[in-house]
Inverse folding.
């Protein structure tokens, strides 16, 4: 049985989950999903007179009571500046802050000193890009020269990237003289290893790509791309925003050099993200945000910086957010990441099968039966995605509409926008069926049939 709390103590999910994950069935049962839903007060909302069907977890996830309680408990009982004060409360706050780092590290197969707190994944990706820019301009000393770029060097992304994993690399290319290249996608918005192999060359210095596309649900062949990049001596930066919340993630085993993900997509709070970096690379990368908390010595002429991860955490840290994110991870681990992934796969295939039966619907991404994440983006013939979203919202169904911060991908597919329905551990088959019934009514409502 999954964790269930009703007025549970702060930061402590219910102990009704008695079996180990290995002893439970691979996929969540309907009963377990219903019990999980009771932990999420946001799912009880009534929207436009209808019970909320929340199919926008790909944008931001709802939070269970245990996560809300964990942050509140910290703020009420342990709130203090970390790594600064010598008093008892400061010590407790620092311990909670660093315990949270260790929890996140274990969740993604890293060491604690390989985890940097950021404000979000966009911030984490910018940290790497601007750090490399600083190294290129001579900051960081001899150790940082491994990052330095020169005119003619190449940075490789894909045509399907979220803007957060595209624009920082465009900017890096602009300030260093490097060339930005991209792996083109096909008509479904996906690509093959061979496509990557044709773009990654001996001039490639950085390969940045998403583990899971936030538009198509495509799961990238990470191991193969990492092997291609490393064979050319290139660094790999992985956007794990749509992977970390939904599937088992072992960054050390994947052998990526850097990775980024956000707390708010994985049952945690906004205002906190995570940058993973191999320890030796983090300690060589010069910081781009400077100030208090990240220095050893400061004179009027210069400063010396702490080792990673503190060297990248200038200023007041997101302490309560880190504590809450650690609690979110404990919740996910109690349910079981493999079970969550299996549940979402079932829901995605159910959505795909249902949408295939509705005239005028064009789905982007992998076809029915092909593994994908638990999200589906689609176009409705003759109806703008914003109108589709409003039609669904009027029935209490929350989806995402627009270009999903992926304009180049939509342009390649000949679309200005799509409608995206995304699932999570608390999504039910009944909600998917309700969504499908509503989508079937879109074109008749707008006079397209």
């Amino acid at each position: 049985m999954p964790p269930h709390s009703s007025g549970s103590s702060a930061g402590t999910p219910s102990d009704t989950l008695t079996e180990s994950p290995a002893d439970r069935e691979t996929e969540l049962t309907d009963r377990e999903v219903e019990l999980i839903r009771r932990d999420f007060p946001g799912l009880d909302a009534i929207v436009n007179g209808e019970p909320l069907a929340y199919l926008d977890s790909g944008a931001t996830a709802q939070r269970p009571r245990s996560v809300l309680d964990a942050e509140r408990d910290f703020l009420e009982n342990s709130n203090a500046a970390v790594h600064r004060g010598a008093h008892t409360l400061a010590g407790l706050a620092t311990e909670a802050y660093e315990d949270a780092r260790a929890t996140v590290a274990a969740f993604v197969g890293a060491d604690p000193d390989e985890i940097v707190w950021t404000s979000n994944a966009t911030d984490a990706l910018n940290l790497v890009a601007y750090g490399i820019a600083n190294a290129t301009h001579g900051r960081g000393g001899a150790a940082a020269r491994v990052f330095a770029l020169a005119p003619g060097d190449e940075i490789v992304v894909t045509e399907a990237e979220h803007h957060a994993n595209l624009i920082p690399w465009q900017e890096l290319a602009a300030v260093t003289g490097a060339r930005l290249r991209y792996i083109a996608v096909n008509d479904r918005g996906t690509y093959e290893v061979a496509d990557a192999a044709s773009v990654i060359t001996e001039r490639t210095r950085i390969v940045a790509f998403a583990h899971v596309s936030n538009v198509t649900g495509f799961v990238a062949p990470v191991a193969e791309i990492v092997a291609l990049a490393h064979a050319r001596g290139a660094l790999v930066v992985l956007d794990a925003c749509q992977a970390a919340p939904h599937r088992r993630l072992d960054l050390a085993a994947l052998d990526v050099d850097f990775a980024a993900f956000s707390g708010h997509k994985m049952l945690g709070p906004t205002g906190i993200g995570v940058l993973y970096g191999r320890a030796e690379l983090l300690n060589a990368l010069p910081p781009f945000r400077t100030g208090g908390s990240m220095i050893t010595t400061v004179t009027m002429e210069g400063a010396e910086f702490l080792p990673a991860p503190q060297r990248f955490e200038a200023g007041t840290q997101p302490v309560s957010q880190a504590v809450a994110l650690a609690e979110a991870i404990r919740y996910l681990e109690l349910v079981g990441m493999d079970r969550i992934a299996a549940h979402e796969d079932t829901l995605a295939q159910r959505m795909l099968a249902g949408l295939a039966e509705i005239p005028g619907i064009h789905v982007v991404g992998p076809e029915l039966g092909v593994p994908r994440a638990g999200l589906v983006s689609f176009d409705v013939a003759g109806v703008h995605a914003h109108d589709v979203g409003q039609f669904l919202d009027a029935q209490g169904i929350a989806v995402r509409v627009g270009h999903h911060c992926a304009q180049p991908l939509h342009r390649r597919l000949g679309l200005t926008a799509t409608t995206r329905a995304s699932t999570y551990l608390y999504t039910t088959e009944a909600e998917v069926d309700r969504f499908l019934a509503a989508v079937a009514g879109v074109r008749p409502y707008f006079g397209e049939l």
